Amino acid sequence: MKTSDFYFNLPEELIAQKPLEKRDESRLMVLDKNTGEIEHKIFKDVLDYLKEGDCLVLNNTRVLPARLIGEKLETKGKMEFLLLKRIDIDTWEVLVKPGKRAKIGAKFSFGNKLIAQVIDIGEEGARIVKFSYDGVFEEILDELGSMPLPPYITEKLEDKERYQTVYSKHEGSAAAPTAGLHFTKELLEKIKQKGVEIAFVTLHVGLGTFRPVKVENILEHKMHSEFYTIEKEEADKINNCKKQGGRIIPVGTTSCRTLESVANEDGVLQAKSGWTDIFIYPGYEFKVVDALITNFHLPESTLIMLVGALTGKENILNAYNTAVDEKYRFFSFGDAMFIK
């Protein structure tokens, strides 16, 4: 299977630059994965497509304000750090711009409150740095850091909370699980009242989620690795729903990848933490997932390949071309799709 099989033409003006005023008033494309039939709705209409006995699975990760602007101590040259992954309490894997100034041993200062020293060079040019500071690291980061918006968003985000889900809880992501941005607390309450179970998993989203597939044969693509956790109580909710014939509906590709990573061959989940680099593409047999709520993804990305595994390649490409024709808004702050 080729990367180019997942290409579609996306006009730049359809890339959403800012969130809508009301989270649940994004557009919603409803796609029948078996027939390819398409309906056009508003996101809050998702309530009509959820049934009593279903289980909605949400990723409750929280995005770190992971972009830091500082200076190199020796030269005072401006530097940008992007925190990717915590290795231990004060050691992080980071992206540094400009990278050539970040040699092993180099030191950098951020707001005179945070010092970073490069101690190693990691994969694909990432730096391993050790931070020193007085106080609580998370509080300093909250004060000095900004949201690491994807490269295709060029406008400033006025309210940092709009790049967090309303149920975000555990800090650790370099990017938001964006399908969840459409939910309000009121909509989630209505979903519960309908008899839909809500379960949570945690997967800390890495910037690898935006990494393009650079090989033509998709089997040669190396997936990024991300840390996940699923608690026993949440695993039990999902297992019980499945046992009673309800549908398991993850919100976002991150929740989907977590469930499919944790499940055994019979589709049963256990409490577990670990790292996953699962790559889901057409031909994959889903063990847990029955339906999916997701945003519209980049052409030729691993994410469009994942949704194509659920719908079939022809159905997903037809849906995406329809979304372009109908001027849906794409990517992180864009519109949503319910694959039923």
TrEMBL record:
<comment type="subunit">
    <text>Monomer.</text>
</comment>
<keyword id="KW-0808">Transferase</keyword>
<dbReference type="GO" id="GO:0005737">
    <property type="term" value="C:cytoplasm"/>
</dbReference>
<dbReference type="GO" id="GO:0051075">
    <property type="term" value="F:S-adenosylmethionine:tRNA ribosyltransferase-isomerase activity"/>
</dbReference>
<comment type="similarity">
    <text>Belongs to the QueA family.</text>
</comment>
<protein>
    <recommendedName>
        <fullName>S-adenosylmethionine:tRNA ribosyltransferase-isomerase</fullName>
        <ecNumber>2.4.99.17</ecNumber>
    </recommendedName>
</protein>
<dbReference type="InterPro" id="IPR042118">
    <property type="entry name" value="QueA_dom1"/>
</dbReference>
<keyword id="KW-0671">Queuosine biosynthesis</keyword>
<dbReference type="InterPro" id="IPR003699">
    <property type="entry name" value="QueA"/>
</dbReference>
<keyword id="KW-0413">Isomerase</keyword>
<dbReference type="GO" id="GO:0008616">
    <property type="term" value="P:tRNA queuosine(34) biosynthetic process"/>
</dbReference>
<comment type="pathway">
    <text>tRNA modification; tRNA-queuosine biosynthesis.</text>
</comment>
<dbReference type="InterPro" id="IPR042119">
    <property type="entry name" value="QueA_dom2"/>
</dbReference>
<keyword id="KW-0949">S-adenosyl-L-methionine</keyword>
<dbReference type="InterPro" id="IPR036100">
    <property type="entry name" value="QueA_sf"/>
</dbReference>
<keyword id="KW-0963">Cytoplasm</keyword>
<comment type="function">
    <text>Transfers and isomerizes the ribose moiety from AdoMet to the 7-aminomethyl group of 7-deazaguanine (preQ1-tRNA) to give epoxyqueuosine (oQ-tRNA).</text>
</comment>
<dbReference type="Pfam" id="PF02547">
    <property type="entry name" value="Queuosine_synth"/>
</dbReference>
